């Protein structure tokens, strides 16, 4: 017979304790070595002429990868409050910590932002003019138009795509995200002490306008940070694509973190098989959602067959190296996880689910690599993989990110201690 | 409850009543451990832990749905392959049409439909698979005839052990249930007196099935047939409304009473009326016929019989094949008066690069489907029709090549005659005056002349000086290629 658990934390260890003190310096050293090695090898990269271009691009890939995880976790916290979710209370704090990492993550964006503000087009081609002129006659011939005098696209987009406005927008995005993330974390931590139920109501009330704000910021930030690498391209589906990947990677990261915490003897009683089961369902559902959105974006462009849109897919599908990546994405990002975590048994197995989460996160990294790196060789769009630059940077950035997490989490409780729905979450059962 | 003889009713099982969910789960535990299998528990709400207590295995429904969904992938793709790609079946031919230059069978275009087929099939598989696993539909259940059982949806909990179980024993099972905490035990009996289906139900079912077959049979029979009967009118007062339409027969105001004695809805226009915006006095511009030309009455009077001889000749699209000779023709073959057509562009039509570009664009919209982009008479419609013609599925007179010497001849086909051909059609070619405005028709004429002169499709931008020459000066050159 089913026994109702009291709404009490019973795990002996429910915080990182002093683990974070040891982890932060170690992670920072790994991060510095990795990023430094990447910088060093980037100087010798054949295409970049010693201008660190390769490094900037792989740095942006990893930044977008980490940003999507953080933003996805912020989405998780917001939607949990918006839907008054009870089941997710014991894993919500992990997401709150990750979401609060948005503030230090801004520091990681400075190496990208400062060159833009200093008028360098080492990352974003739109900083300097000339990117929309070279195919003007061709575009006119394709459209069947006489060479009428209409302003080139870069002139029409200049009001939006200029360094100053870009900088203002980026600061605004991170301010809004930070405000949301820290509001949730601070309020939730306060409740640990006071147990005041009104704090939960306040977070509920904030979550609805917060979700609208979140959506607006997500749309424009994904345009700005990732899509403007190819400023000629058009796709209004892109922010949804970014969001689907972000939410999916957030579910994976939360699962993985919870699993690692339990592996190291923390919060052993609070996160149960039923929570993994539901996290697994979310991973499954958002994996399908990602495939649905990715395909929708592709189908519209494929069917309309307009040169202004198809060139983007053309260079990713019809160039030999990128074709392999495209196939890898379809198989690894959609179909393999789809069949792997479809079953109930697989979802209720913590270790299997963690392995699936690692796999999906790898695929999510590949996704951002596939989005960003073809723009590195802006002329030929050839496939380039430089392991000496790409891998150390990836390892280093992830290590820095772990340091950020420890910095935010410190010895704070890893589960909400006195959330009014704690009992509901502890007694959560999935059939 | 009266249970008399074995002939009128049959014992189905023993129904035990419990007061609370805990004792029900305990009883289920005991029953399972003892080895009962054919049993079921009933409660007003889902009880935690009842499934393992009663020994229910996890449902196989997900695997049924997965198998059906995988079959649906084949079904969805196969259906599209059959209808879009495979066009050779004699019974139900497909629709192998080229759309947007895409391949007949192409995975991206087929995924949405496949996806929908998967969703629909999975929903059906879930719904009807659940029926199947629960042995539904069950038209009657003896439990529903027990007064006590009604509280299963309210505040009581029940466990029924069925007689079909190998370990079932009327008295032992009863004592066991009592021992496990049942507050009341009752026999559940099935009434055998009215167990049979009404006899008319079978006949009705067969009749219904036959009736359901009728619509598909009728559709199949009507497929590809013409019908001489008027179509059905389900709402005649909507199809034939009681109102006045311009220049039609008027509806009756009352029995045998009309607005006008001649039964028209309106008065006929006064002789010589011209519709607004259709004055078109400039014959050169609107008809391609010279201002100073007057029709010869004798020539047009006998046009009737002559038409048939000229159309039956091989030459279909352009000028009749007779040599342009005397003014007075023999009575059997009436000579077309070629002198009436203008040989130069009328005033107001300025032949320049802009007009030629416009003419090319219009030509490629309206004319190229039959005459081809280069005017060789090899357009897509023509190609398709010729292919159908070869197998006898259609009759078709091939479109004229605009580079045919007769079509090219400026004397046999002056500019005005080309304009007239476009406007009102010629032989099997239909009229285009309703589709193409006058200025555009002249633009097409100019483009056709330039096509004939160059023999190939000209470039998008033509030098104005060079463009003027072929259009106007085409007449005397009379090239032979």
Describe the fold and architecture.
- The complex is a heterodimer of chains A (431) and B (481).
- With 431 residues, chain A is mainly α.
- Helices cover 70% and strands 0% of the residues of chain A.
- Chain A has helices at residues 19-42, 53-82, 89-100, 102-117, 136-143, 153-156, 163-194, 197-225, 238-263, 273-304, 307-317, 320-340, 344-347, 350-372, 387-409, 422-426.
- In chain A, helix 2 (53-82) runs antiparallel to helix 8, helix 2 (53-82) runs parallel beside helix 15 (387-409) and helix 9 runs antiparallel to helix 14.
- Chain A starts with 18 loop residues before the first helix and ends in a 5-residue tail after the last helix.
- The model of chain A has no long low-confidence stretch (mean pLDDT 90).
- Chain B has 481 residues and is mainly alpha-helical.
- Chains A and B meet through helix 10 of A and helix 1 and helix 4 of B.
Structure summary:
The complex is a heterodimer of chains A (431) and B (481). Chain A is mainly alpha-helical and 431 residues long. Chain A has 16 helices and no strands.
The amount of helix of chain A comes to: 55-70%
CA-atom Rg of chain A in angstroms: 23 Å
Termini separation of chain A comes to 15 Å
Average of pLDDT of chain A? 90
Strand content of chain A: under 5%
What is the number of beta strands of chain A?
Answer: 0
The global form of chain A is globular
Q: How are strands sequenced across the largest beta sheet of chain B?
A: 2-3-1-4
What's the gyration radius of chain B in Å?
Answer: 42 Å
Low-confidence segments of chain B, given as residue ranges, are 299-330, 458-481
Tally of individual helices of chain A: 16
Q: What is the helix/strand order of chain B?
A: EHEHHHEHEHHHHHHHHHHH
Instruction: Tell me the major beta sheet of chain B.
Output: 4 strands, antiparallel
How many alpha or pi helices of chain B? 16
Q: How many E strands of chain B? A: 4
Largest interface here, residues on each chain?
Answer: A-B, 14 and 17 residues
H-E order of chain A: HHHHHHHHHHHHHHHH
